[in-house]
Amino acid sequence: MKIYLTLLFTVVTLFLFSSCSKDQTVKDGKNKKEGKEKATDDIANSELSKYDLSSENPQIINLPKELKEISGITMTPDGRLFGQQDESGIIYQIDFTTGAIIKKFAVGKPALKKDFEDLVYANNKFYLLHSNGEIFEFPEGNDRESVEYNVYKTELTAANDVEGLCYDSETNSLLLACKGNSGVDGSGDKAIYSFSLESMKLNPQPRFILKKSDVVNSFNPSGIQRNPLTGTFFLIAANGSMIVEISKEGNYIGKASLPKRIHFQPEGITFSSDGTLFISNEGNSGGGSIMIYPLIKN
After folding, report:
1. How would DSSP label each residue in 96-126?
2. Environment class of residue 153 by beta-carbon count within 10 Å: exposed (0-12), middle (13-18) or buried (19+)?
3. 64 lies in a domain?
4. β-strand partners of 136
5. 256 and 226 inside one domain
6. Is there a contact between 103 and 142 (Cβ–Cβ < 8 Å)?
7. Taking a C-beta distance cutoff of 8 angstroms, is the pair 290, 279 a contact?
């Protein structure tokens, strides 16, 4: 009888252990799946849902090899597209229907050579961003002309690795997105700072904080742009292959992945006045490229 009870106890124990293990495996699998879903698209309440960002065949404009390392792009109010090469103070006007270079002009004589990351046009001036937080201001030049510039230093440094620059017309300021150290704490969150075009000074306190818990740990902004139709902001990241929308107040709204097959290294972002989205990508073996995403028609 004692032996029988011992065997029965053993069988029951094994059964319970097996059930618990199975339940835990299912639970773990579910958690992993939920974690994966958290890191992928979340566009239900976002303007991102109005663009076919998952398309395997978006409109692609291939650029000449001269623009292999295209970094920032910007659209002027009259609908002209300009871009800049990484580490070069050459500004290019680009025909976004063919990818051809319409003209190019230099910032400084000879052209500056620094770790330039982004470009924006605001109030009839261009602003070029250095990764250490310096901002270069200059007018538009004619083809093959060299233009003079002003430079504004900020409290940001190379440790912040500032890569994104855009103009916010509501506050008449430039927004600077940090790829590196946020300058706030060691949380890994990403900061966006504001540079006033009235005082020409940086607010030392971040305007927005993008929490890594809202996106993914690997999201490191390489570009930022204000949506002209909504006033919200779109951020892209080459490291993380993602685009994120935040509100005017800096609150997270949604995110979408950028397919690596299409976006080898997304660096620049801009909009045309009708809301068409442009994303520039550094090239691999050939020249860079620009992906064009019109608004989805209902």
Report:
1. TTT--EEEEEEETTTTP-S-EEEEEEETTEE
2. exposed
3. yes
4. 128, 151
5. yes
6. yes
7. yes
Yes or no: say if 122 and 167 are a contact pair by the CB < 8 Å rule: yes
Is 298 within the bounds of a domain?
no
Tens digit of pLDDT at every position of the chain (298 positions): 444 444 344 433 444 434 444 444 434 443 333 333 344 688 888 999 999 998 888 999 999 999 999 999 999 999 999 999 988 899 999 999 999 999 999 999 999 999 999 999 999 999 999 999 999 999 999 999 999 999 999 999 999 999 999 999 999 999 999 998 876 666 778 999 999 999 999 999 999 999 888 887 778 999 999 999 999 999 999 887 899 999 999 999 999 999 888 898 999 999 999 999 999 999 887 789 999 999 998 7
Question: In terms of C-beta density within 10 A (0-12 exposed, 13-18 middle, 19 or more buried), how is residue 144 classed?
Answer: exposed
Q: Containing H/E element for 30? A: helix 2-38
Sheet holding 289-293, edge to edge: 59-62, 289-293, 277-281, 266-271
Length of the chain: 298
Distance CA 236, CA 53 (A): 12
**Can you give the CATH number for the domain in which 131 is found?**
2.120.10.30
Amino acid identity, position 193: Y
Separation of alpha carbons 191 and 236, rounded Å: 14
Closest CA to 106 of 119, 118, 90: 90
State how many domains the chain has.
2
Residue 34 belongs to domain spanning:
1-38
